[in-house]
Specification:
There is one protein chain. This protein is α+β, with helices and mostly antiparallel strands. The protein has three domains: about 15-130, no CATH class; about 160-285, no CATH class; about 285-450, no CATH class. It is built from 16 helices and twelve strands. It has helices at about 15-30, 55-70, 80-90, 105-110, 160-170, 200-210, 220-225, 245-255, 290-315, 325-335, 340-360, 365-385, 390-405, 410-430, 430-450, 480-485; strands at about 35-40, 45-50, 95-100, 115-120, 125-130, 175-180, 185-195, 240, 255-260, 265-270, 450, 455. It has a five-stranded antiparallel sheet with strand order 1-2-4-5-3. A hairpin with a 2-residue loop joins strand 1 and strand 2 (about 45-50). Helix 9 (about 290-315) packs antiparallel against helix 13 and helix 11 (about 340-360) packs antiparallel against helix 12 (about 365-385). The longest helix has 30 residues, at about 290-315. About 35% of the residues are buried. This is Spore germination protein. It holds the Pfam family GerA. Belongs to the GerABKA family. InterPro entries: Spore_Ger (IPR004995), UPF0353/GerABKA_families (IPR050768).
């Protein structure tokens, strides 16, 4: 057992203006955004310190400096902390404030968007929250397009995101617990849940994950999603992420826990099951029959995206007898003169399409879409004309790529691309038997997978009759409830 010799630092009281300036200069060096302003508070000299990059000059003049200038001669001349208490009540009633007696904690307060006010003869400082930053306005989500429904999307401000959730859930039991992650970044992370409805075991696991993470920096919820995952090597996401407040609020009502990361427009929801990634909030804003139809299409598109290339390779290379004679003749005629086997064709086209998709994503928005579409058409047509690939191969790859975009959550559809390559390789070695073997191992993996103790295949495995009302089918709203669709059930919890 190792015994730590580290001792708690002894608090250093604040004694003089020179001491404060010297300590801040040592902490921040010669940074240009450190402001040290000498002010007069009645007949006494004081010091106001803050970071100009964490607030605005207008805000400081109107809300901090101006109230001091309005003090009459002789006001606030109490002794010690009583003087700071008077200033807090008289001048800064609208700002949250606290008292600081340890100068070593001052730099941390300044980097958090606060200002320190010191008065000559007082061994404490008044800390005021003066953060006033410009943030992006609430716009329509960019990755989850809305046809019918609320068009508000989360922003990079955690306070704004919490406000969007609070305005939709007028519930006094809605709670926001704050955590700070990242030794260098000091990122604020909030866990949102409805007290009394959320499962206590799941909540304890989430809190333990957020409290035990020792990372240097955290800038987006995607990094946190990987940190809290119980199976980081799984290709299936174990946390649901969304830019849509209505989607997160619906999951909160299903006894889930939302995780908000300051600086990220994507909010996580845990635990997440596979069925969540085939649902869309718009399913509940349309007639239930059409909502069921579109949900079934998503499941079908998932199977297309995962299996069509591997099945094409298997039947054209090994099990040709499964193809009708007329179609087999047509495929053979198209492949005549193609110098590569079917697996090389498929892999080459899949990789080329992924390159075009990545290029279209990273290029400037004005030309990115045109490059991806024109590039695919030109390269595909040129490759067919040159006899490098066949027409049927272009159709297979195109249908596969389009099916991959049907998933409401982009990250889920993107992960399927990697599994698709595995099935193609198995099909090229063992034919349909390879596809079947890959499917068996995939089902075993899914059956063993859990998200914070909840089975990933819930409510199908273990089967729960009440959960079928909002799984493959979307029953009428009055025939189902949020509680019946929630995967977090007493009989399904696992430690």
């Amino acid at each position: 057992m190792t015994i730590s010799n580290k001792q708690t630092a002894v608090p250093i009281p604040i004694q003089s203006m020179e001491q404060v300036k010297s300590h801040l200069h040592d902490a921040f060096g010669g940074t240009e955004d450190l402001a040290l302003v000498t002010v007069l508070i009645g007949a006494e000299e004081g010091l106001l310190c803050y970071l100009k990059t964490m607030t605005s000059v207008t805000f400081m003049m109107e809300n901090v400096i101006k109230p001091l200038s309005l003090l009459r001669q002789g006001e606030g001349e109490q002794d010690g902390v009583n003087r700071l208490q008077y200033l807090k009540e008289k001048c800064y009633g609208g700002l949250s404030g606290e008292f600081l007696s340890d100068i070593q904690a001052l730099p941390k307060h300044l980097t958090a968007g606060k200002a320190g006010l010191w008065i000559h003869g007082v061994t404490s400082m008044l800390i005021l929250d003066v953060m006033e930053l410009i943030s992006r306005s609430v716009d329509e989500p960019t990755t989850q397009t809305v046809v019918r429904g609320p068009k508000e999307g989360f922003t990079e401000s955690a306070q704004t995101n919490m406000s969007l959730i609070r305005r939709r859930l007028a519930n006094e039991h809605l709670r926001f617990d704050k955590y700070t992650l990242g030794a260098q970044s000091g990122t604020d992370v909030y866990a949102a849940y409805i007290e009394g409805q959320v499962d206590d075991k799941v909540l304890r696991k989430v809190k333990r994950c957020l409290s035990s993470n020792k990372v240097k920096s955290l800038f987006d919820s995607g990094s946190l999603e990987e940190m809290i995952s119980s199976s980081p090597f799984s290709l299936f996401p174990l946390s649901y992420n969304s830019e849509r407040p209505d989607a997160i609020c619906a999951l909160l009502l299903e006894r889930r826990i939302a995780v908000i990361v300051n600086g990220s427009p994507f909010v996580l929801a845990v635990p997440a099951v596979m069925n969540d990634f085939f649902k869309s909030p718009e399913d509940y804003y349309q007639w239930f029959a059409f909502g069921t139809f579109t949900r079934m299409l998503r499941y079908l598109a998932f199977l297309f995206s995962l299996y069509i290339p591997s099945l094409y390779v298997a039947v054209t290379s090994y099990q040709q007898e499964l193809i009708p004679t007329a179609l087999l003749t047509s495929i053979a005629a198209q492949r005549e003169g193609v110098p590569f086997p079917a697996v090389i064709e498929i892999l080459a086209m899949e990789i080329t399409f992924d390159i075009l998709r990545e290029a279209g994503t990273r290029m400037p928005r004005v030309v990115g879409q045109a490059i991806s579409i024109v590039g695919a058409l030109v390269l595909g047509e040129a490759a067919v004309q040159a006899g490098i690939i066949s027409n049927i191969n272009v159709i297979v790859v195109s249908l596969t790529a389009i099916s991959g975009f049907v998933a409401p959550v982009y990250t889920f559809g993107a992960n399927v691309r990697l599994m698709r390559f595995g099935f193609i390789i198995l099909a090229s070695i063992l034919g349909l038997f390879g596809v079947i073997i890959g499917t068996v191992f995939l089902l075993i993996h899914l059956a063993r997978l859990e998200s914070f103790g909840v089975p990933y295949l819930s409510p199908f495995s273990p089967f729960r009759k009440a959960g079928q009302k909002d799984a493959l089918l979307r029953f009428p709203i009055l025939a189902s409830s949020a509680d019946s669709s929630s995967p977090v059930k007493e009989e399904e919890r696992h430690e």
